[in-house]
Every structure is written in C-alpha cells, then in structure tokens.
Write a structure and sequence with these properties.
The structure holds 2 protein chains of 2 kinds.
Chain A (H helix, E strand, L loop, with lengths): L12 H6 L9 H11 L8 E12 L2 E8 L11 E8 L2 E8 L10 E6 L5 H8 L6 E4 L15 E6 L3 H13 L6 E7 L8 H10 L3 E7 H4 L4 H7 L7 E6 L1 H13 L6 E5 L14 E6 L4 E6 L4 H7 L17 E6 L2 E3 L5 E2 L4 E4 L3 E3 L3 E3 L2
Chain B lengths: L8 H21 L2 H27 L3 H27 L24 H14 L30 H10 L1 H7 L4 H5 L5 H29 L4 H27 L9 H4 L4 H10 L3 E3 L2 H6 L6 H6 L7 H16 L5 E3 H14 L6 H8 L5
Parallel strand pairs in B: 1-2
Classes of the chains: A alpha/beta, B mainly alpha.
C-alpha cells in the first residue's frame, strides 16, 4: 500500500451531528417551529424583529420602529435590510432602507411609502400592528456616510429620503463641521417625509442648509433645477437617492461636469423592464450562476433556448409536469405557457421547459 | 372491463381546455389555507413521531408498546404520504419556505429524494401506464396485464408481491439504480456505484437511526425499541404499498403502448392520466392517511396542486369525465385492493398471452 494515501475518515462527527439520521433530535426546522410557536422572537430563522411603534410620517408614509433580536449584527447609516412577511401563505421579501442612526440605540426605523400595487408595502401599511414580529436579513449595501469631514450635498426624491436621513443623523451625531446642503424633492408640502424633524434640525444646526423643492409647483427636480439650486454642486461629496430616473440624471450631470467620482447613488425602485407579449420578441437572459448570457424568443421555451446556446440545464419531462428544470428567476417577467400564469415578482420559481421570456430576465442558473 | 374512451380531436381539445380552466380556478385560490394545512400536518407528524418514540422508549407494558408503534407508524405514514410525496411534487414551492421546497426536502424513508424526483415525478408522472416506459407499472417484477411477457418465474409473483409489500421502501429506493440494466450488462459497475451512492448513504442513516441510535438511547429497553421501530416501518410499508398499488393496477385501470402515446396532444395526455389511474372512496382521515392518493386521478391531472384540493375538485372532474364518456374509476379501498390482488394472482398464470402477440403485430388493444 502506498504511504501517500491519506487515512480514510471513517467517522466524521461534525457531519453526523447534522445528519437527518438523527431527526427529530437535531431537526433544526422542528426546533425552530416549536420555539417560534411559543414566542416568535425566539425563532432561529433570520433575525426576528418586533414592531414597537408605528409613526405616520405623511398620508402615505409610515415609519415602523423595530426592536431586533440579539443576533442583529449592527449596521452602517445608509444600509438596507430585506424584510420578510408572509402574505396569504407565501413568504415575500422586499428591501427597505433604514432611516435610523446606528449610534442612537438599538431600535431600527424603517420608513415605507405606500406605492399603488406594492405587495409588501401594502401589507405593512394595512396589516402590521404594534407587537407583530417581522423577519429581517442582515443589513447590506455600500451606500454610506463620507468618512472625511468635507462639504456634503445630499439629493433625495420622494421616499429616497430614508437612507439620507439615516446618514444625516449619523453626521449630526459625529458633529460634522463642513457645510451640508440637503436638497429634497417631493410633490407637495404634505408629501414631505421627516419635514418637522429636518426643519427643526436645520434651525438649530448651522451646518445644515435645507432646500426643499416641491415638484407640483416647480416641476421635476432635474439637472437644470439642481444647477440653479446648488451652483457649486461639483465641489461637494454628493449622495443621491431616489427613483432610478432621478439618480441616473444626477449621475449624468456629474459626468458632464467631469467629476463622476464625487457622486454615489442608490435607487430604490427596480428598473422597469420593457415587456413584450410578441411571440417573436427577443429578450436577453442572464444566468447568474454560470455567468452565461443567451437570447430567448418569446415563443420558445427557456429550456430550449438555453440548450441552443450550448447550456445543459437539468430537465425531465419537458412538458411542465415533473419540475426537474425548476429554477429561480431573480428578475424579469416570464409566462408559463402551460398554465398561462405570468410571473413578474423577483425571486420566483419557474419551470424552464414551459416558460417563455416576456422581458429581459435573470436566472439563478 | 370498461373500454378505453375514444374521443375526436375536437373533443380532446375541449377536454383539455375544460381541465385547464379547472386548474386555473384552483390555482388562483391557493393561499393561506394550504399553507396552514401543510404546516399543521408537519406539526402533527412531529408530535406523533415524538410521542411514539417516547412511548416505545419509556414504557414497559405491551399496551404502551402497541400505542407507541401506532403513533410512530402514523407519523411515518403522514410524513411520507401527505408531506413528503406532496412537497416533493412542488405542491408547496409557492410558499417560498425552504423547509417545504421540492428541491430541498428530504423525507424519512430509505429512498433518496433526488432518485424519487426522477423515477416518480418525471418518469412515472409523464409516462403513466405506458408499458415498457413507466417502470412503476409492475416495478419490473409483476405481470399485471396480458400485454406483459409471461415466464415460468411469473408463477411465483404472489410471493414476489408479498416481499415487495413488506420491503416496499427498499423497492422504491433501488428503483432508480436500474439494476435490470446492470444485470444485462448494459450498465458499467462504476456507473452503478455512482447511482447507488446517495441511496447507500441515506439507507445507512435510516438504519442507524431506527435500529442503532434510538434503541441505544433507551439501553434499558433495547429489544422493545428495536421491535417497535421495525413494526412501525412494516406497517408503513404495507399501507403505502396497498395505497400505491390501488392507484394504477385496479381492474379498470388501462395500460397504453408506446405507439399510442407518442406525440400526444395535451388532451390525449390528460385522457391517459384519467384512464390509467383509479381513486379510493372514504372519509377525510382516510384521504389524509393516503396523502390524498385516494384521488389518484386528480393528482395525475394536476400533480403540483396542493393535495387537499383534490377531493374538492373531484366532483367537477367526475362531471367532465361523464360528459365525454370517460370511465371515472372510483370505489372503496377493499374493492379496489381486492381487484389488484386478483390481478396479481390471475396474471401469474399464462392467461391472455395473445394480447402481447397482437400488440407486437401492431394491432392495438
């Protein structure tokens, strides 16, 4: 026998402890459901957080004050969390910016503006009560306050104000001394989220220069309006948050001024992808696991199109019965030709063999 | 035996569209109620399993032994039939609950879920009752129709059947290894070893749990626990086998040839699913214990609809069948199982051998 052969591991204790052969003793799901039945805050899944207060900010915006369980890892101002709620038996996830300041205690604030047809936002607004428990993910996102004490320009539109509020609160706690210009755009005075708090802060903190732009009176806050409001914009470290069209317009402005590196942006609404029901429409499919891209016609199943592109996704019956080819669709719209169901939510499971693309899509394939 | 229904192409199109509409109506209603149902069953199976194991471990008298066996068998049947089988079909994938997802779930049986998804979800459900293609038809062991080959060994099939019923979970577990192909020299030993690896790993774990770990934990009661676990496994085997055999091998369940089922339309596919399946009539608790395979016809039409919906749509499916003159095969358990046992006995003898010859000559039954 060769001495090079590593001794074969006969007994792997760690993997035995996780083995389903020990169920129910080590059945994590069973213990979790038992614990959370007694107290939802004892759940071992994700980070449970109890709603301790609900604040009405404007007619269509509420702030949910949350107390997370001890396994909450902490966060930086400007980051967002994924909130999980169960709506009609289905777990749905949505990402929201935190508007609180990490230095001001262990309560989190999530401010949510109600958009028509928003599933999770609608649920939070109409169903969630003080005392309920939500499930959170660990915070994520690289949108954060500048490290240096330098002039800062904050540009926000609508509910894009939430992460900027968090950053502003942190700058205040840090005793930032260079000028801060905060430009906020919303439709009318009644839609101004955090109005009272911001105005009070601006009155007592000379560093902060608050400029509010009501689009119902003065039109959309675009490049021209920004130039007029803050002529020296290019000299500021700039943070921008709002709908994608708004952040893109600000980025263009800084690119034209030759200082694209001075602006950091965060947009909250996912890109609205152009949809087409036409059978011969071509859509790009991005496969995030294999980093491959292919084009799918609106009348050919995604499985067939992936195979034509040289990929070999696992599959079985090819008629939508066995679910062997089931795959997570991260974004985009597909139609199931067998059932006629349209899937446009993010992170839904689809069957590749009977689904056709109705927009550019992203698959975990 | 009832004759196979003959439908015109127009009727088949109408049949498909009526069944599609029925499916869409149910699919649109899936939600909270289904989520509550499956979670309740998971909890019941856990409680019942823990109770059974507790009674076997800590009891000393025959009565608690019998009760312990019943509770453990109940847990195993519920977990395999109502939870495992249905979850693995993807009936609850829409919930986005990783513990109830078809691709993650691993059930409490020696058959590995990945093997089951292939042999059952794909091969059996798309090729239901097609001789030579659907391996579930007789499991390569039993002759259940004149169209199957008779040899002298077939005479012993009542004995093979009794052994299969007793060791049913093992029969199911090795189905995907395709031992027949290996025996005929059509599969290399290396491929067989690779195919067998997940099964061997799983089998080792299952045997360890029921016949080593739990008896050892109750070291003062080793024989009691050992025998109790064996009895519970035996009850589950006999029960699941009886229910599953009633699904496709009753007197009125038809078989199909490859020629008949090539290039099927959707209507033809639906028709084959109905005519190849048979239902069991009973009460709610009976339906639950069969994992709703009491409604094999509805299950084969819509394998990914949550199973408790099957009894609800059964009257509509029955009405559609009546409209097109398709025999809807439903009867009580003893009548159906009796006809299965009769078929096993009858076809052990060289009866109806001409059917096979006629089919080989291209004359369809």
């Amino acid at each position: 026998m060769s001495a090079v052969l590593a001794p074969k591991r006969i007994f792997d204790f760690a993997s035995l402890l996780r083995s389903p052969a020990l169920h129910p003793l080590n059945d994590a799901a069973a213990w979790d459901s038992m614990l959370s039945a007694v107290n939802p805050m004892w759940s071992t899944r994700g980070i449970p957080a109890r709603v301790v207060e609900i604040v009405d900010e404007t007619a269509d915006t509420k702030t949910f004050v949350l107390k997370p369980k001890g396994n909450w890892p902490g966060y930086r101002a400007g980051q967002h969390v994924v909130v999980e709620v169960e709506i009609n038996g289905r777990r749905v996830h949505r990402s929201f910016s935190l508007s609180s300041n990490p230095a001001s205690g262990d309560l989190l604030r999530v401010t949510v503006k109600l958009h028509p047809q928003a599933l999770v936002g609608g649920y939070l607004h109409s169903q969630l009560q003080v005392g309920d428990v939500l499930n959170l993910s660990a915070p994520a996102g690289g949108f954060s306050a500048p490290m240096a004490d330098e002039p800062v320009l904050m540009l926000s539109a609508g509910s894009g104000i939430t992460p900027l509020m968090s950053i502003l609160r942190e700058l205040r706690a840090r005793k930032h001394a260079s000028p801060i210009v905060f430009v906020h755009s919303c439709r009318t005075r009644d839609d101004f989220i955090f109005a009272r708090e911001l105005e009070a802060l601006a009155a007592e903190w000379s560093v902060l220069d608050l400029r509010v732009h009501f689009s119902a009176e003065r039109g959309r806050l675009d490049a021209t309006a920004i130039r007029a409001l803050v002529p020296g914009f290019a000299g500021f470290r700039t943070l921008v948050c709002g709908p994608e069209a708004f952040t893109a317009c600000v980025e263009d402005l800084y690119r034209e001024a030759g200082v694209p590196e001075r602006v950091r942006s965060e947009s909250y609404s996912g890109r609205v992808l152009p949809r087409s029901l036409a059978a011969d429409a071509l859509h790009t499919v991005i496969c995030t696991n294999t980093e491959q891209t292919f084009t799918a016609r609106g009348d050919r199943g995604l499985l067939v199109e992936a195979e034509r592109a040289g990929m070999k996704p696992k599959h079985g019956c090819r008629i939508g019965i066995c679910k062997t080819c089931q795959c997570l669709k991260k974004s985009g719209t597909v139609e199931n030709l067998r059932t006629g169901e349209i899937s446009s939510e993010a992170n839904e499971l689809i069957q590749l063999c009977v689904s056709v693309a109705r927009s550019p899509i992203e698959l975990a394939l | 035996m009832s004759k196979k229904a003959v439908l015109s192409p127009e009727q088949l199109t109408d049949l498909a569209s009526e069944l599609d509409t029925l499916r869409a109506t149910v699919a649109a209603d899936i939600g909270e109620r289904d989520a509550v149902h499956i979670r309740t069953q998971v909890r019941n199976a856990r409680v019942s399993g823990a109770t059974g194991r507790g009674l076997l471990m800590f009891g000393f008298d025959p009565i608690t032994w019998v009760l312990g066996v019943i509770a453990l068998a109940h847990a195993k049947i519920l977990e395999n039939m109502e939870i495992g089988h249905n979850v693995l079909h993807g009936q609850y994938d829409w919930m986005n609950d990783e513990t109830l997802n078809s691709q993650n779930y691993e059930w409490d049986i020696v058959c590995h879920s990945s093997h089951w998804r292939r042999t059952h979800n794909f091969e059996h459900h798309s090729n239901t009752n097609i001789l030579g293609v659907d391996d579930d038809y007789g499991y390569g062991l039993l002759r259940l129709t004149g169209a199957q080959k008779w040899t002298w060994r077939t005479l012993l099939q009542p004995i093979w059947y009794a052994l299969l019923a007793i060791y049913f979970q093992w029969g199911v577990a090795i189905q995907d290894l395709k031992l027949g192909r290996w025996a005929k020299g059509r599969m290399k030993k290396g491929e067989l070893a690779e195919r067998a690896a997940p099964f061997l790993r799983k089998a080792r774990g299952q045997l360890f749990k029921d016949y080593v770990l739990f008896p050892l934990i109750a070291f003062w009661n080793i024989p009691r626990v050992l025998l109790g676990n064996a009895a519970a496994n035996l009850i589950r085997s006999l029960w699941t086998n009886a229910i599953i055999f009633c699904g496709h091998f009753t007197e009125q369940a038809h078989v199909f040839t490859k020629a008949e089922s090539t290039d099927e339309t959707r209507g033809q596919w639906y028709l084959r699913q109905i005519q190849g399946s048979s239902n069991l009539e009973g009460g709610r608790w009976f339906y639950l214990m069969t994992g709703h395979l009491s409604h094999q016809i509805e299950h084969h039409l819509f394998p990914d609809i949550p199973a408790p919906r099957y009894p609800e749509i059964a009257p509509q499916v029955r009405a559609i069948c009546a409209k097109y003159g398709i025999h809807y095969n439903a009867a009580g358990f003893w009548k159906q199982y009796g006809s299965v046992l009769w078929r096993i006995l009858k076809y052990a003898f060289p009866v109806e051998r001409r059917v096979r010859v006629r089919q080989a000559e291209g004359v369809l039954a």
